[in-house]
């Protein structure tokens, strides 16, 4: 079972839901991801995600769409939405749920079409993996944006997860290039997937990277637990 997420989403869609995904992280934490979380209705979404959906305009690419709940909502609102995910199981579920435009691809391999809105929710920027990959990733997003396009993304500043010293600083392991880089492994029904890198990026670091790549970065809103919603646009000439 290589496609851990996709297998879990397919089981839920096919009414075979019995287990949740277990995650193991480099932060020495074990956690669970309830599969129904990927199938939330609009009213069940956190306010940051609802805000992002309200800001969507024009043609939209939902990057890392998962089970397609955001795409489905936007499609029902009449938007021209394309749902994209690297997981074959996820894109199969999107099709079963009635999403009309679905693409199975790594975002870095996808090109040729430009959009008014690139949507990356549920910490969608996490797929960058490592901070050193961010410049390449942002450069690719620019190729997918129309001149007046926008990127809407959310992330979290996870500095709070590290131990604070008496001087107000934090103990960051020496082997970390950036404290927001986390290694995850997912397990579903006794099957473990391959470890993968996931990036949680603080807003100031995101803003600096955006400016370095000719993008303007705006903080739209902040959540209740170190999370935030940001908008990237092409810098004005």
Automatic annotation (TrEMBL):
Name this protein carries in UniProt: SAM-dependent methyltransferase
Transmembrane parts of this sequence: none
Keywords: Methyltransferase, Transferase
GO MF entries: methyltransferase activity
Cited SUPFAM superfamilies: S-adenosyl-L-methionine-dependent methyltransferases
InterPro entries: SAM-dependent_MTases_sf (IPR029063)
A GO BP entry: methylation
Highest rank taxon of the organism: Bacteria
Source organism: Saonia flava
Signal peptide range in chain numbering: none
């Amino acid at each position: 079972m290589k496609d851990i997420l996709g297998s879990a989403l397919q089981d839920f869609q096919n009414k075979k839901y019995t287990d949740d995904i277990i995650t193991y992280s480099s932060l020495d934490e074990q956690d669970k991801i309830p599969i129904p979380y990927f199938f939330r209705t609009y009213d069940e979404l956190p306010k940051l995600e609802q805000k992002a959906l309200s800001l969507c305009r024009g043609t939209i690419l939902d990057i890392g769409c998962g089970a397609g709940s955001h795409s489905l909502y936007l499609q029902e609102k009449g938007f021209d939405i394309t749902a994209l995910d690297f997981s074959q199981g996820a894109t199969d579920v999107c099709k079963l749920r009635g999403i009309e435009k679905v693409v199975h691809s790594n975002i870095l391999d996808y090109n040729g079409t430009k959009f008014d809105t690139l949507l990356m929710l549920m910490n969608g920027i996490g797929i960058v993996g490592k901070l050193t990959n961010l410049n390449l990733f942002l450069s690719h997003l620019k190729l997918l944006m129309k001149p007046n396009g926008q990127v809407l993304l959310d992330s979290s500043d996870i500095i709070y997860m590290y131990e604070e010293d008496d001087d107000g600083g934090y103990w960051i392991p020496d082997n970390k290039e950036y404290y927001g880089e986390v290694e995850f492994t997912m397990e579903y029904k006794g099957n473990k997937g391959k470890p993968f890198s996931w990036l949680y990026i603080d807003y100031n670091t995101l803003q600096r990277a955006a400016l370095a790549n000719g993008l303007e970065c705006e903080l739209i809103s902040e959540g209740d637990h170190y999370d935030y919603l940001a908008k990237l646009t092409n810098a004005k000439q």
